[in-house]
Design goal:
By secondary structure, this protein is of the alpha/beta class. The chain contains six helices and six strands. Strands 1-2 form a two-stranded parallel sheet. The protein has a two-stranded parallel sheet with strand order 3-4. Helix 4 runs parallel beside helix 6.
């Protein structure tokens, strides 16, 4: 289900899932075939994911795909019949995207989850990223800042004091903080 959602979010036009039992949470865009895997299931595919909890089935999927020169990812990758590529474990928090790859799907997921825990405690970075979308263009296009002051202001936006300012009042708090440091910005249009 997670792999299906991921490839749909990535823009896949057609996604098929073959499994003896299809989970109810499967996205409705997925063509679901409820039966055991057959090698012919990979014919015509652009990429294939071997994502069962049965190593023997995953091996059969990898071999069938590779016989037809179709790229295949094995989620329980081992050294034999490992597949052609690995997909990192991905975490999305607003505009922040973190991908973790650690040579093992289980370890990659563990690293991703640990990073997710850290990001939850650092929610201000998400606020800062959102605020920078509005403020950075103003600084880049500023006629009131010299090139050196502009460069310094952009660097200042990613410092702990900026993080503190955005945490107090979001984008508006960060803008006020910038104006205190760079009074010449008062002439710019506030975001």
């Amino acid at each position: 289900m997670r792999k299906a959602k991921g490839v749909i979010e990535g823009g896949a036009g057609k996604v098929r899932c073959v499994a003896p039992k299809i989970v109810a949470e499967m996205p409705p865009e997925v063509e679901c075939i409820e039966r055991e895997f057959e090698p012919a299931d990979v014919v015509g595919a652009a990429i294939v994911f071997a994502a069962t909890d049965q190593p023997a089935v995953n091996t059969a999927v990898v071999r069938a795909a590779q016989e037809l020169n179709i790229l295949v990812c094995r989620t329980d990758a081992d050294e034999q019949d490992a597949g052609d590529f690995a997909v990192p474990a991905v975490l999305r928090r607003g505009p922040i995207i973190v991908a973790a790859s650690a040579g093992s799907p289980a370890l990659s997921a563990k690293v991703r989850d640990q990073l997710g825990t850290a990001l939850l405690t650092l929610q201000r970075y998400v606020q800062l990223a959102d605020a920078l979308k509005a403020l950075r263009p103003i600084l880049v296009d500023s006629k009131s800042l010299t090139p050196q002051r502009r460069r310094q202001a952009l660097l200042d936006l990613v410092t702990p004091p900026a993080l503190e300012a955005v945490g107090q009042d979001g984008k508006d708090g960060l803008w006020r903080w910038l104006i205190e440091r760079y009074p010449e910005l008062k002439s710019e249009n506030a975001p």
